[in-house]
Amino acid sequence: MSVHFLTNTTDSGTNNITAVRNSAVSVSGALILCLFLPIGVSGNLLIIWSILARTRHRSITTLLILNLAFADGFVMLLMPFFIVYWLKRNWIFTLPLCKILLYLCSTNMYASIFLITLMSLHRMVAVVWWNHAGVLTERRAIIRVLVGLWIFALGISVPNPVFYTTFRSELEPTFLMCSCKHPKPRHVILQHCLEIVLGFLMPYGLIISSYMCILCRIRRTRFRRHIRSEKLILVIVVTFGLTWLPFHIMNMLEIAGTFFPEDSHAKARLNQIRLSFRGFSSTVTFISSCINPVLYTFAGKLYIKREGLAFMARLFEGSRIESMRKNRQNQKNQDQEKKEEVGHLKDRI
């Protein structure tokens, strides 16, 4: 997934105003990332350490969270390069590094949204079809899915190193940019449509469908208890959606701009909107990679005093135990419903 910092316009007066505005937005974005960077790095490293060293029973949910922490943590480790870029408003690194960093960043961000989607699908299987789809909840099957997920994320991130390059900005010619430079408008449409469909619409369609199925199952079985792990995953899903929505809206505006002539008022207006909000959307997108450890901390606050730094291990183990309890309760509810149906039939006979 691409991250844009500057966009070209045509009017020189507008260029000067936009350059000053972009400079303020870039500095503000860099300072915000500087505040979140320690939280993101330390938090995701704590999750990885807690799962690998302190978790005795690594459930499927734990494996998914481990991979999500790795993806988010890797993105945060790349952030210092972009913080320097935003502060200096000049790409001081090499062209190959521009392509490699954006490729790695895109891969891990795609992996994050796919992992969150997989969490939702796994919860749906565990709640709705848990007694008929055992193969879908086995460790070996999930490990194969995770390997395929990472390979797919690596594959669909290829457009980034293809289109990303370094060039002088028309707004500020003294500054060297590391950004997308599409040869033709159809390349803009191709790349951004790929990001919107595979990185947002399709995953969130599956996520929403999964939770609708879960809610329907809960209502049908008259099972009203909420499970900590489901609450946690739902909050992760909502947070991730809110942090990525501005980014994809900017992509939609850029796609819309390709359908207007270069000198049209509508195209200039769309460019102005993107210039005003692209820095904000990029900053919020990066923040999504460090917010999950904060959510885990709130979810596991009952374990902090008792377990210390190992509280996340107890949180994930607790999620596993609660999920098993839920399955047993679902089975009891189903058995009770069957007994009631048999009783009604006997009464009729």
Automatic annotation (TrEMBL):
Q: Where in the cell is it found?
A: Cell membrane
Gene3D superfamilies, from UniProt? Rhodopsin 7-helix transmembrane proteins
Q: Which residue ranges traverse the bilayer?
A: 30-52, 64-88, 100-121, 141-158, 189-211, 232-260, 280-304
Where are the residues of the annotated region Disordered? 324-349
Here the segments flagged for biased composition (Basic and acidic residues) are 334-349
Q: Name one GO biological process term.
A: positive regulation of cytosolic calcium ion concentration
> What GO molecular function annotations does the UniProt record carry, in alphabetical order?
complement receptor activity; leukotriene receptor activity
Q: List, for all copies, the residue spans of the domain called G-protein coupled receptors family 1 profile.
A: 43-296
What is the name listed in the Swiss-Prot or TrEMBL entry for this protein? Answer: G-protein coupled receptors family 1 profile domain-containing protein
Originating organism: Cyprinus carpio (Common carp)
What is the taxonomic lineage of the source species?
Eukaryota, Metazoa, Chordata, Craniata, Vertebrata
